[in-house]
Design goal:
single chain; eight-stranded mixed β-sheet; five-stranded mixed β-sheet; 16 helices; 3 domains; Alpha-Beta Plaits; 54% helix; alpha+beta; Ubiquitin-like (UB roll)
């Protein structure tokens, strides 16, 4: 359908050149659609799209929609009202009465015979194109490549209907001037197009019948919705418990997303409930065992983000028994947030935490110009980030002259994350040596770093203000790791590893000296290894 519309508008835009040129171009562009196969294909596409639109309205248990959803739905319902007369006077008239639907006939009909129809046709173009662009935008905005191409596509989307309407207006204006000079212009044009009064009357009756049918179908859909709602409210529905502490009745067939919207609870859904963006994801608590397993679109979407068991899409789950849910993304989540790995929205898990600090950064700042300091720090953080990425870590936080990294976020075996963290420390120490060699003429003294590593439970997830959320960790484990990193100054060593992290990684502690230090906020002290170099790691 969109291909047909694009071909049609492209032909209209050529009216800016000349009517005869546009006639030839439109005949070429429309030839595939005027064939029996093309007509059947286009009619089938329209009926499927139209039927799907009506069904989607009936299927929804709630009409509390996002503004863009209302805009797309409302514009879509208006399209038949605006276009049916045009369709009846062109393609239907061509098939049933042998009318030659050239630009001369169409322009004369719209601009001379019934000028208000010209405004109706212009409104139809704007309405149809807006409906299509809204649908395309909210489909494509979940794609990673779309932000890069959005401006260019937007320019094309603006130019095509603008040129088409400009061509339509220009040709219509010229035709009206000609009709004002030639008294029998309209009669001669209609005769050449094989248009009769009987044909015009038949076209009007056909268009009116189709418009009435369209309005009746819409009325039937909303009446059926009302009857279903009335019948469902007489039953005892299951209850949906939300993390905010409220409970809501779930109407039969309603999704979690529809239930929340119906009760005024903001919930993310970038794609409008089509299982594309995954921003509506929730963690299901009580009642999860009574839900059917994910299937179809939901399965593919959850697999794409590597969702853990218990994570479902609110737009796809339709509870039939009491259920409790916790939203995993903010209500104003963006399309980019939909690519966050499932399970990183907030949970307590075993994780290896690393803190890295650049020694002597204050002295460095006093001895160099701000631009030079910025250059050196950017080089340092680039190398540290490369080391983290090369050892399967996650760059979590920037802390002035240091950083925090997380290891083992996606590993079921805790040992893998601890070993990767130790490898990451070795990679960092090596890269700092290389950086010192490369910048030896720029540095009064070599760069030195302190690294602290600890493994334990932490709350890991997306945290921070809306629009700037990051995957990070909080809790006692993070505080302990920061304390260990600070102790590298006291023990004059580049690396301190907690006993717990060393044991999880499988290091041989035989003959190793274990130190002990208190940690603020903890009753028990922490044992650790103070290392001048990375020990041999187990395979």
């Amino acid at each position: 359908m969109l291909a047909f519309v694009v071909c049609h508008l492209a032909g209209h835009s050529l009216l800016l050149v000349s009517q005869s040129y546009a006639d030839g171009a439109l005949a070429a562009l429309m030839r595939p659609w005027r064939s029996d196969a093309g007509t059947a294909l286009l009619a089938t596409a329209f009926l499927v799209h139209y039927g799907n639109a009506l069904w989607s309205v009936y299927e929804r248990r709630s009409l509390h929609l996002m503004p863009w959803e209302w805009a797309q739905l409302g514009l879509g319902m208006c399209i038949p009202l605006l276009l049916l007369l045009h369709v009846a006077s062109t393609r239907v008239a061509e098939i049933s009465h042998g009318v030659d639907t050239s630009y001369a006939y169409v322009l004369a009909l719209l601009w001379v015979f019934a000028p208000p129809l010209a405004l109706l046709q212009a409104a139809a173009v704007v309405t149809l194109w807006s409906h299509a662009c809204i649908g395309l935008h909210f489909w494509l905005r979940t794609k990673r490549w779309y932000p890069k191409w959005r401006t260019g596509l937007g320019i094309v989307a603006l130019l095509l209907p603008t040129l088409a309407l400009a061509g339509f207006l220009s040709a219509g204006s010229q035709l009206r001037q000609r009709a004002a000079i030639e008294e029998d212009f309209l009669k001669k044009t209609f005769e050449d197009a094989n248009v009769t009064e009987a044909a015009l009357g038949s076209v009007e009756r056909t268009a009116l019948a189709l418009i009435v049918l369209h309005l009746v179908l819409i009325a039937l859909v909303f009446a059926a919705r009302g009857l279903r709602r009335w019948a469902q409210e007489r039953r005892m529905p299951p209850q949906l418990s939300h993390a905010c502490g409220r409970k809501f009745p779930v109407l039969p067939g309603a999704s979690i997303l529809e239930t929340l919207r119906e009760n005024g609870i903001p919930h993310a859904s970038v794609c409008g409930g089509r299982a594309r963006c995954t921003t509506c994801r929730v963690r299901v608590g009580a009642g999860a065992d009574r839900l059917p397993a994910p299937s179809g679109l939901e399965t593919r979407a959850l697999e794409r983000i590597g969702a853990e068991p218990g994570i479902r899409l609110a737009c796809q789950v339709r509870p039939t028994a009491d259920l409790s849910v916790t939203p995993l993304l903010a209500a104003d989540a963006s399309a980019a947030d939909g690519y966050i790995s499932g399970g990183l929205e907030g949970s307590e898990r075993q994780v290896t935490v690393m803190f890295v600090d650049l020694r002597g950064s204050t002295t460095l700042g006093e001895a160099k110009l701000p631009y030079d300091v910025l250059f050196l720090l950017n080089r340092f953080f680039y190398e540290m980030n490369q080391a983290i990425a090369a050892t399967r870590g996650h760059y979590s936080q920037f802390t002035g002259d240091g950083l925090m990294a997380l290891y083992g976020l996606h590993d079921e075996d805790a040992r893998a994350g601890a070993l990767d963290a130790l490898r990451g420390a070795g990679e960092m120490l090596m890269r700092v040596e290389q950086l010192n060699e490369q910048l030896k003429n720029e540095l009064a003294q070599p760069l030195r770093i302190g690294i602290g590593i600890h493994h334990s439970e932490a709350i890991v997830g997306m945290m921070g203000p809306p629009g700037s959320m990051i995957t990070t960790a909080i809790g006692d484990t993070v505080n302990t790791t920061a304390r260990l990193e600070g102790l590298t100054k006291d023990y004059d060593c580049p690396l301190i590893v907690s006993r717990r992290a060393a044991e999880v990684a499988g290091l041989d502690l035989t003959g190793q000296t274990l130190h002990e230090a208190p940690v603020k906020g903890r009753v028990q002290s922490v044992q650790f290894l103070a290392l001048q170099q990375l020990p041999a790691l187990p395979r």
